[in-house]
Amino acid sequence: MKKQFDVTGMTCSACQANVTKAVSKLDGVENVDVSLLSNSMRVEYDEAKTSVASICDAVEHAGYVAREKG
Ligand code: 9UX
């Protein structure tokens, strides 16, 4: 499963790294690409192991806000 998210709250490249790290840690996440410039994120994951809600929670825990695009 591949999903796009809007991410708000990132202001520098360390923020981008924080979001990447938080989502990468989740069990079932296969690939994460966070864009600081476009305030977005693409996540490839195993839907048997994680979910949009878990991904958004992880981003929130890191101090940012993610919402599924669309
Ligand atoms: Mo950059 Mo982001 O100095 O939480 S790490 S603002």
UniProtKB/TrEMBL annotation:
Give the superkingdom in one word.
Bacteria
Cellular location of this protein? Cell membrane
HMA domain segment(s): 1-67
Question: Family assignment?
Answer: Belongs to the cation transport ATPase (P-type) (TC 3.A.3) family. Type IB subfamily.
Protein name in the entry: Copper-exporting P-type ATPase
Q: Which organism is it from?
A: Faecalicoccus pleomorphus
Gene this chain is encoded by = copA
